[in-house]
Amino acid sequence: MPPARHHARWHLLISDLAHAADQAIRILDEHPASQDTTSRDAQLWPYLQTWGEHDILLRDLALQPVHPQEPDTSLGAEAQEWWTVRARSARSRGLLQPRESLYDATGRQLTIAFVPHPDDDEEEEDVVLILAGDIDSPEMRVIGRYNTDDEAIRDLPPAVPPGVLYPNGPPPDSGSPPGLPLEQLTRDVIDAQHSASVAEAISYVTDRPPHAPAGHIAQLTALLDTCATWATAMDTRTGQEIAVRLRMLSAQTSHLIQDLAQIGGQLEEAVAVLPPHRTPAPRHLPALRSPAVGTTPVAPAPPVSAASAHRR
What we know:
The protein is of the alpha+beta class. The chain has 8 helices and 4 strands.
């Protein structure tokens, strides 16, 4: 694979999986099935959890081509520049519609997006482009133009494993078992691998469905309004002042719902994943302090038991 800054962490995570497999085999050998399995299962659980969380890394890496190639776009330099200018213009006018985003083996972000047909004919189908780089950055460029998204998807290189929000582990206060629904939503965002999942978490906070429980902020608005009514019922100046302040806060939460709903829509339309250099830290082996940039370290693989499970 081409050199990339995330390779050192991938190497370490794969070694961590091998270590977990070897430890699981050792525990199974030391605790025959005929004995009490309670202690055995307790010892196995951390290593099984490692594979449950990270075995997808091996699957995604196994799908990578031996020699990654640039998408066969048949676009010359002049055509790429022309479509790049058009894509930037469409983005600035809100007419560029991202369809899918991924990172390739070099760590480059690739996005499939639709733009209006250059003839501005409503009967013409939108044109499908492959964009390289952040679609809102000046470095973004068009590297492919297609008639359908199926053609573009076939031309995309396989995606590498996306990154995570907290590569070195979540903050200490987020490791407690979910209690309040908001804590669960925070956990969902930490575990999210796609911007649509983050948008979904926001929707739980903002939505006011007609036949379902209101979102968290809507519930807060109702609470503030009820408290304001109670303060007014005190029939005192202090009560009136408190009621005014509560209603001002309630109005702010209403604006917050509108703003968050718009942000949730933007996150969903972004079809984004996190860059691969945000590889999770290993669960059992020492983590790297700072991933190497632009190099792919070649280290001898740790010995793996012959009985290690074969994964696709």
